[in-house]
Amino acid sequence: MSEVIQFVSTRRKSPPVDFKTALIAGIAPDGGLYLPSGYPQIPYSTIRSSDYPLFAADILSRWITDDIGRESLADICKDAFDFDIRLIPLSGRNWSDCYVLELFHGPTLSFKDFGARFMARAMGSLIESDGRRITILVATSGDTGSAVADAFSGLKGIGVILLYPKDQVSSIQERQLTVKRTGVTACRVDGSFDDCQQLVKSAFEAGSASPMSLSSGNSMNIGRLLPQSVYYAWATQMLDDRPSFCVPSGNLGNITGGALAVRSGLVVNRIIAAHNANSFFPEFLIDDATPRRESVRTLSSAMDVGAPSNLERLTSLFSPEELRRLFTGISISDRETTETIKRVSDETGYLADPHTAVALEGIQRMRKEQRLNGPVVALSTAHPAKFSDTVQMATGRNPAASAKLSSLKDMTTAVVDIPATQSALRSILDESK
Ligand SMILES: *Cc1c(COP(=O)(O)O)cnc(C)c1O
After folding, report:
1. Would you call 206 exposed, middle or buried from its count of C-beta atoms within 10 A (0-12, 13-18, 19+)?
2. Hey, which end of the chain has fewer CB within 10 Å, N or C?
3. How far is the CA of 249 from the centre of ligand 1 (A)?
4. Which residue range forms the structural domain that includes residue 230?
5. How many domains does the chain have?
6. 254: Cβ below 6 Å to ligand 1?
């Protein structure tokens, strides 16, 4: 039998717990983030399947060892990952051995559907028998909120409150966030994403004494991270040579998925954290005394994070030397982002959204500096139609509309405006009880 994996806080001041407890708590009582207590060595090169849900269930069963049986895990994966995942080779002289892993074919058109849909179904299955009620609190810079709201909406016993920064999400994203859904309250906060994230953190700190069960829908939740390790392995099994990955990054949740895959035995070359002007992590990799800072707004808005919360996990998973050996950080400006969208469209015909473009430019820069060999996979985190204004401005081309977006036009929306204060959030929480 494989060992039982428990979950421990990055701050080591609260007891280890099982998966169910970590999933429902979201954040550990000591304020830390949960990580597995041990790292299974997964024989990645022997796991081959053309069926993504089966592939995912096989891998996830090595992490989630006691709470959810193998069969339910397979059912959860089948239901959660019921959309396409595509590895597209780019053509064109400058793009040889370069692939795009499209992770945006889920219902809300961003990679966040992977984590959110798995987490929702796992939580639903684990509380089904308890008869308890849970409120999921989630701060969002755009894509997390709609993925989480969509994934949880209508699940028995679970309500969702999402907080997003006013005027800092695209109009399509705002529509996706505020579409009326059963059990979901959308709050537009007069502040930044970091303010929203801070509000969530303080609600947890204050919440331990309250009778309400609060959980986090952010990538603080381990239930969202584990499924984000699977597609790294999926892409690797499709390639002949060990690949590097270039990941459009903000809160570092996607990259922490890759880190968990590597920790459990996946052999990759490098992982490149491609950031926009919010370059805290690239600077941190050079100097770990780099101070955290306020976020600045960019065209790749889902990555506008000044103080990434998953850094705490990465520094628990790896020593500073290991971090530097595995990861490279890169920061790409808005001008480079739009130029890249245009250049990629001209040279390969591929239409990239601004987040994916940050990764593609990261690859070009690494190659120019001769710091990257072998195949490289850019994780494509959003559908270009989600950011059609920017894509159209850059290329003159209009991304093919997605039926998932056009249907939004006819739906009713609802939103509550709140200031960025704990008391405002508290009254929303009280109402949702
Ligand atoms: C959330 C998001 C990112 C950043 O992912 P992190 O896990 O926060 O690093 C990148 N691109 C898109 C489209 C996103 O929605």
Report:
1. middle
2. N
3. 6
4. 85-111+223-402
5. 1
6. yes
